[in-house]
Amino acid sequence: MTGKGQARMRPESVEALAEIIRLTDMPLSPVGGGTRLRPGEGQGARIETGRLSGVTHYEPEALTLVVRAGTSLQAVQELLASEGQMLAFEPDGRAGSTIGGVVAANASGPRRVQAGACRDALIGVQFVDGRGEIIRNGGRVMKNVTGYDLVKLMAGSRGTLGVLTECAFKTAPIPQVSLTLALPDLEAGPAVAALTRALTGPFDVSGAGWLPERGALIRLEGLEGSVAIRRQTLAARLEGFGGLVEVPGMNWADLVPEARGGDLWRITCQPTEAPALLAALPEPLALDWGGALIWVELPPGEMPVLPSWSGQAQRVRGTEPALVPPMNSIVARLNRDLRARFDPRGILVGEG
Amino acid sequence: MQMPEPDGAIIARRVEIAALLRAAVPDAVIDDPAETRAYECDALSAYRCPPLAVVLPATTEEVAAVLRICHREGVPVVPRGAGTSLAGGSMPTADAVVIGLARMNAVLEADYDNRFIRVQTGRTNLSVSGAVDGAGFFYAPDPSSQLACAIGGNIGMNSGGAHCLKYGVTTNNLLAVKLVLMDGQIVDLGGPMGEAAGLDLLGVVCGSEGQLGIVTEATLRILPKPAGARPVLVAFDASETAGACVAAIIRAGILPVAIEFMDRPCIRATEAFAQAGYPDCEALLIIEVEGTPPEIAEQLQLIRQIAEGFSPVEFRESRSEEESRRIWLGRKSAFGAMGQINDYMCLDGTIPVSALPQVLGGIARLSAEFGLEVANVFHAGDGNMHPLILYDANKPGDLERCEEFGAEILKLCVEVGGCLTGEHGVGVEKRELMTTQFTLTDLEAQMRVKDVFDPQWLLNAAKVFPLSVSASRREGRNDRKGTSAHAA
Ligand SMILES: Cc1cc2nc3c(=O)[nH]c(=O)nc-3n(C[C@H](O)[C@H](O)[C@H](O)COP(=O)(O)OP(=O)(O)OC[C@H]3O[C@@H](n4cnc5c(N)ncnc54)[C@H](O)[C@@H]3O)c2cc1C
Predict the structure, then answer these.
(1) Cβ contact A229–B438 (<8 Å)
(2) Nearest atom (ligand 1) to Cα of B160
(3) Which of B71, B270, B415, B424 is surrounded by the fewest CB atoms within 10 Å?
(4) What domains are there in chain B, each with its CATH number?
């Protein structure tokens, strides 16, 4: 997606990055692998983190990992897997994706319903803000309330406050057993009711989604005996929805879909709101988080017309950025003012 | 401890300001000095200062009305939940209006299908779980103070509890808030799954110690109750061995809901107080697992296998509700027990689990140096330590010595890669130590967030940041010089 003639910078050190930001006056777009850019993003001169890579610290017995932001997601996942661990929030893998990009996008997969989002596993950051200052927040311990939680502010900040240079995570053990069960006959709307039944009982569900052709999907993970027991009790609870079948080798990354030519929309809602939204939309590409996340493709440029609900719909692939309903004016003011404090010259360009 | 000198001009206007507040929220204003005394401190009770006035609003609109007045008049405000902060987070200043949320304790909505409860933030932590218990749900963060502390205070401090090893702390269970800004504007942050477009404002408000706004409503994630839970008690002849056992359990991929640690001085004190029947040992772990009986058995078998590699003095599995209660009894009464025998100061640093032997050794050395005893009790799974330093409040100089000792322990925590506070917050207590963990640039970045939410620095301003570091901002609204506030 790099435009021709667009400037690119790949600083070799945090200090060099800070200096570039201090000295420049042109619009900058912080980029990791450029795999999670949204409409309108990435249009300034690219400041890339690829050379700021490598693992700083990994302590499996403390479940903590510190890694430089330009490290590839794949390298992080391989390292963790070699120790029987993982990033519990299950970011979807994309070729070239960096860990800094994952954090800047707060990219969180199906296990979010059980283990939280990227922002919940993130325990520390270092970043260079729009003033060119090197800032640390959080640390490398799991419990830390020392000062304001800028770690959360940076997760999902999409390069608008600064360039992430280092990220620390709480890691998690890979479960002994992972079992995917499906209710294959369910359409998206009715699937939400089944997923809700599963999520409201003591089954410790670690994935609850829906895909066309595959129906409602539920994942149970843990020790072997425990998974077997929960499978039985869950089957009894879901009797009214048709028989549960096992899906061997399920790839849960499929729940983060790609658009096939149209615009990709990401809609958050309360699960009980999902059926009404679904009724107003074409068949979704996927549902996740028990129905709290709807992925849908719309014709290019088209806006969804939806009954009022408590969440938001955002265009994540397409040409123009779009958010429905638009941000409340006070929230928008707080966003704007925070950006202005961290980047007073307004050189870090996000969407619009 | 230093506190900024209160603004004499505001104190001189006490009667007038109280009248303004009373006109906006009749029956909710306390300004009789005999009554404001009840709000002069929190659980860091060595420090006290009665406020200018106290307001106990009943609605979000009343909170907004009070803040609008204080904003207009330039009057500082200190938000208060139940006042159980151990860091002086809700301790007033003499020129401040305390806004207490105690009357706002309603459950607004319990939505089981969507797994959340919406409450007013004066509601106590335990009564949130209580409200959903009948439907088979619970609210996970469980500070030991849960009978008393309020959800607003939990959000202010991003509180944790024994079970957060598995379920996370407050911020991981908070989905949305209604926040009243210092100028009286009301804003909703968060949304389904805790998400909203733009920056994670909810995330930065949680743990901001009442400095960014007053939270009047909170939407909290609730979880289906597990089928059951069972603790085991494992006793060791050395603290280091207990620490190594914790690391081995985590390394093996087992994630119990809680792993609690107590050392000999702590065990001795709780035995004398609660007679839980703990074994005679140097250190013990209480490990709790959840599930149906066969699931519990499966986990405990693995834990036993690992623990046996460390030659425990005893591995005590609970066989009944009563035995479970007794295993937890000592741990739950640890603070009360220490309070019986001494005055104590409770620290809250977090360390990387691997640094445990080094830090325990350091604490023992410092204990000899300062001549004050320490008992250790902590959340071992996540490295959050609670060393309790014993002192005698009636002995001149003992409190100061205890504070110096505490500061040394916290510096040690930072040195080994940890932090000053894992769940109690900075408040006034650890404010001046912030520069051991952060550079001035780091602190400046944090203060910029406050500049956005509270440009005049009226909300709980003398907390969190070292006074000299926040001085120009606080003095921007007023000319204030630091004076010494003395221990009561
Ligand atoms: C015996 C004992 C045991 C404890 N155990 C634990 C424990 O296990 N884990 C733990 O984390 N803590 C523990 N604590 C500390 C304390 O209980 C927590 O910090 C608790 O969350 C404070 O709640 P509170 O309602 O008492 O808040 P307060 O003390 O009233 O206030 C705490 C902070 O939050 C701010 N605040 C309060 N309400 C609001 C609001 N509505 N909006 C914005 N800001 C607000 C205040 O200004 C202050 O900065 C313990 C304390 C005691 C005394």
Answers:
(1) no
(2) 11
(3) B415
(4) 1-103 (3.30.43.10), 107-224 (3.30.465.10), 229-335 (3.30.70.3450), 342-434 (3.30.70.2740), 440-488 (no CATH)
The predicted structure's pLDDT at residue B333:
86
β-bridge mates for residue B391, sequence order: B343
Q: A-chain residues within 8 Å CB-CB of B292?
A: 229
Q: Is B70 helix (H, G, I), strand (E, B) or coil?
A: helix
| CATH of region A1-174 | 3.30.465.10
Q: Which of A84, A223, A327 sits opposite B299 (nearest CB)?
A: A223
pTM over 0.90? The answer is: yes
Level-2 CATH architecture, domain A177-254? 2-Layer Sandwich (3.30)
Query: Which pLDDT score, from 0 to 100, does residue A349 have?
Result: 86
Chain A hits for B227, Cβ within 8 Å: 202
CA distances from B364 to A29, A205, B320, B375 (A): 51, 44, 37, 10
Spacing, Cα B387 to ligand 1 middle (Å):
19
Per residue in A127-173, pLDDT (tens digit) is 999 999 999 999 999 999 999 999 999 999 999 999 999 999 999 99
What is the rounded distance in angstroms from the CA atom of residue B232 to the CA atom of residue B217?
38
A278 vs A77: CA distance, rounded Å? 34
> How are beta strands B97-100 and B53-55 bridged, if at all?
parallel
Instruction: Give this complex's ipTM.
Output: 0.97
Banded pLDDT at B479 (limits 50, 70, 90): very low
Closest chain A residue to B185 measured between Cα atoms? A330
Ligand 1 pocket, residues with Cβ under 6 angstroms: B 42-43, 78-86, 89-90, 101, 121, 143-145, 149-150, 152-154, 156-157, 159-161, 209-210, 214-215, 335, 423-425, 460
B269-294 per-position pLDDT tens digit = 899 888 999 999 999 999 999 999 99
| Per-residue tokens: B444 | 């400046």
Instruction: Enter the tokens of residue B484.
Output: 């010494």
State the pLDDT confidence band at A20, using cuts at 50, 70 and 90: very high
- The answer to whether B18 and B481 have CB atoms below 8 angstroms apart is no
Tokens of B321: 């509700």
Contacts of A306 (CB under 8 A, 6+ apart): A267, A277, A280, A281, A313, A324
Q: For residue B276, report the distance from its CA to the centre of ligand 1, in Å.
A: 28
CA A119 to each of CA B80, B164, B200: distance values in angstroms, whole numbers, following the listed order: 28, 16, 9
Which element (helix H / strand E) includes B24?
Answer: helix B14-24
Instruction: At A135, list the tokens.
Output: 């800032």
List the single residue in B224, B417, B441 with the smallest CB-CB distance to A133: B441
Question: Residue B60 corresponds to which tokens in the numbers above?
Answer: 């979000």
Domain boundaries, chain A: 1-174, 177-254, 256-329
